[in-house]
Amino acid sequence: MNLNENFDVSPGKIAELKSRIVRLGVDVGLIEESFIKGGGKGGQKINKTANCVALYYPPLDLRVRVQRERRRTINRFLALRELVDQIEMKVSPGTSRRFQEIGRIRKRKSRRQERAAEKYPEAPRLAD
To answer: Which side of the chain, N or C, has fewer Cβ within a 10 Å radius?
Structure first.
């Protein structure tokens, strides 16, 4: 995979992704990239072009498939960012933004559950 191509994304996002790749020690040369015909909404453009991006990182056996946009360049960037997120979750879970976001959501849900239990003490509670 070549990181020097134009991803049609802001340079700041590309620089941030490259710094994360360097920090995690990801060997970009090992990432296998393939393009698949898309499906779903988008009409003829989606159905006829191979704009769905599939990435595979063999050292950690991680696979990512992205087709959020019609343009392949943006899907390549999004797939690479998703792959780096998954690598970070496996390699360094303490610094992973996704794990931090999951923790915040869990905390918020537990607070809601506690408030509901205080407000409606006789209501049946879900099993923990």
So the answer is: C
CB of 54 within 8 A of CB of 64?
A: yes
The answer to whether 73 touches 8, Cβ cutoff 8 Å, is yes
* Model confidence band, residue 84 (pLDDT cutoffs 50, 70, 90): very high
- Between 37 and 1, the more confident residue is 37
SS3 sequence of the chain? CCCCCCCCCCHHHHHHHHHHHHHHCCCHHHCEEEEECCCCCCCHHHHHCCCEEEEEEHHHCEEEEECCCCCHHHHHHHHHHHHHHHHHHHHCCCCCHHHHHHHHHHHHHHHHHHHHHHHCCCCCCCCC
**β partners of residue 33:** 55
126 — pLDDT class (breaks 50, 70, 90): low
Q: Could you tell me which residues come within 8 angstroms of residue 105 by beta carbon, excluding any fewer than 6 positions away?
A: none
What is the pTM (predicted TM-score) of this model? Answer: 0.74
